[in-house]
Amino acid sequence: MRTLDQKLQDLLSTVNAILSVREKSRPAREVVRRRLQDEVGAIKRAVPLAPDTIGELAGGRPLVGVDGSVTAYGALFPQIIHFFRALASTTTLPVEEGLCLVDLFYPELEAHRREIEETVVRAAAAGENLALEAAASQLVRARLAALEVRAAREVVEKYQPFAVLFDGGFLRYGSLAPAEWKEYRELAVDRGVVSIGVIEEIGTFDLARKILAEPVVTPSFTCDRDLLFGVLEPGEWLEVKGDLELKKTYYTCFARPGSYPGAVAYDFFQEQAHRAAEFIPLLFGLTPRGGRGIPWWLDQVDAAVRITSLEMELLLDTCLDRGFRERLFVPRREKRTL
């Protein structure tokens, strides 16, 4: 085991050496800032909105936060049950009293088995050999996205908020739940509800590819998260040029709302891109300065929507026979004794 440990240390040291070389070839912070302003847009400073100013922007309408969670129970396909919960909470009520939707996916249910089979058939028609388990995974992701969008649509219809904050970017909804997302988008734009996707972990490469054009300073797979780390000052945001489409039909900008040196991104519908500068101060005002860059209300929704282990145990004890649990869902490794 000590030999294995030493080998792992050597391998990890190699990774560290590669990162050190990359760091030395990284452009200086001021160079990155200048290139961003030359090629991408303007770096601006935003003053966080005070509570009374937020009220003026809201016009008496509430703010909504939307998030979802999925919890799996079981070990091997098809004996895995996925539990879904989506929560859309307004700031006028306790977060737990928000509009909550739930769902379940189990491959052995006839309707769900048919969905899996149809997904495999569609993949085959496109020349892809998709396994049943992989098809089920696709459906699980799509189901969660659709449930979140449904919750957002229903809360917009019920409460008429001035803005809806989503936990994550818009590409996921557009690809996984296109019909539901199109319906929500049309409703939100028609009613003047500004929708914002708050992205904590930036996974795009667009900025890095654009401003690190010279091969000598282009480390492989440099992502925008890495590029922007420590580049913006607290309270600054990068207003991307309108003609620079990073995501089709969406407008994306980047910001550092607090003291944490990493940047976050905000997605807007292209139809509402002109309101980004108006809402950045709101987002800064809602974000704890010492936090990780997420508006506090969205953090509250994120915590409330999770299905806890205690909830799961109560649910399973109440509704699923122990015999079925032992035979179908509990992996053998959990039954091992030392």
Itemize the secondary structure elements and their pairings.
Layout: H1 2-25, H2 29-39, E1 41-45, H3 51-58, E2 63-74, E3 80-90, E4 99-105, H4 110-125, H5 132-159, E5 163-167, H6 171-176, H7 178-190, E6 194-199, H8 206-211, H9 224-228, E7 236-240, E8 250-256, E9 264-269, H10 276-286, H11 296-305, H12 309-319, H13 322-329
Helix pairs in contact: 4-5, 5-7
Architecture overview:
By secondary structure, the chain is an alpha+beta fold. The two termini are 20 Å apart. It folds into 2 domains: 168 residues, no CATH class; 109 residues, no CATH class. The model has no long low-confidence stretch (mean pLDDT 92).
Strand order of the largest sheet: 1-7-8-9-6-5-2-3-4
| Beginning-to-end CA distance, first to last residue | 20 Å
Number of helices: 13
Radius of gyration: 23 Å
The total beta strand count reads: 9
Global geometry: globular
Give the rounded overall mean pLDDT: 92
Q: What's this entry about, in short?
A:
This protein has 338 residues and is α+β, with helices and mostly antiparallel strands.
Protein traits:
single chain, about 350 residues, alpha+beta, 9-stranded mixed beta sheet, 9 strands, about 20% strand, globular
